[in-house]
Each structure stands twice: as C-alpha cells, then as structure tokens.
Inverse folding.
C-alpha cells in the first residue's frame, strides 16, 4: 500500500567529537521541506541546534526527542512505533547512523496502516478474542 503523506519528514544530525575523538553531541544540519508543517516548528529556529539543547528546549509530542535521544549514538540503528495522542497519529520512527558520522531520523506517518489493521482485526476476531471468555448467566 502506497500513499503520500504530508506528515512524513526527516531530520539529519552531524556528530560532534572532541579533539580526542570522543563523541560529544549531535548538531542538526538538515530537515526535510515539510518538517515545519508536520511539526509546527520553524526550521530556521531549529537548524544548527545541538541535540542536548533540543531535548531540553523543544517540547514536541511529534519529535519526542526526550524519549529517543538515549538511542541516538553513532552507528545506531533502531525503529520505533510512536503514537501522538494530541494529533491522533501513528509514526514509524527510523533512526540510523551512517559511516560518515551523520544520524538520520525518518518519521513515517503510519496512521492509515494502523487503522486498516485495526479494522481487519475487528472484522476477523472472534467474540472471545474481543471480549474475553465469559459464562452465560441462567
């Protein structure tokens, strides 16, 4: 199933290292064209920010950086399903770091996929699966 989504976006970070080669932080270097419309955050405001500052200063239920930043290490590869209650929207968040010390976070709106799966489950599930096992009262 393919469908375009105005809510899909990505953010790209560059790793910052000390003079001794130790990882320090990331700095946001790129966002997709639809980042601002999807997140309601100005790309001009956020570009160039360090991840540590973003975690503290950006309150975004969509980005959810406070939850994801623990996984954002060089050479990391992770996937998360993330529900944004305020927007009633599901995202698949793909996080990966390439060999050049860049980290990408891709947010894919999977709301329609989740809704279709829920409809299929409701249509195919038995009453016992939906409501549990219960006994009749005579």
């Amino acid at each position: 199933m393919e469908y375009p989504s105005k809510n899909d976006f990505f953010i790209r970070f560059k790793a910052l290292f000390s003079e001794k080669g130790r990882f320090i932080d990331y700095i946001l270097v790129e966002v997709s064209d639809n980042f601002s419309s999807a997140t309601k955050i100005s790309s001009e405001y956020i570009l160039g920010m360090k991840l540590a500052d973003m975690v503290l200063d950006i309150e975004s239920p969509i980005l959810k950086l406070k939850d994801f930043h623990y996984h954002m290490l060089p050479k990391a590869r992770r996937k998360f399903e993330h529900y944004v209650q305020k927007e009633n929207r599901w995202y698949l968040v793909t996080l990966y770091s390439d060999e050049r010390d860049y980290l990408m976070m891709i947010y894919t709106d999977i709301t329609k996929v989740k809704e279709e799966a829920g409809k299929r489950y409701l249509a195919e599930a038995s009453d016992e699966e939906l409501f549990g096992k219960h006994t009749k009262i005579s």
About this structure: The helical segments are 35-39, 43-46, 51-57, 65-68, 111-124, 127-131. The chain is about 30% helix and 30% strand.
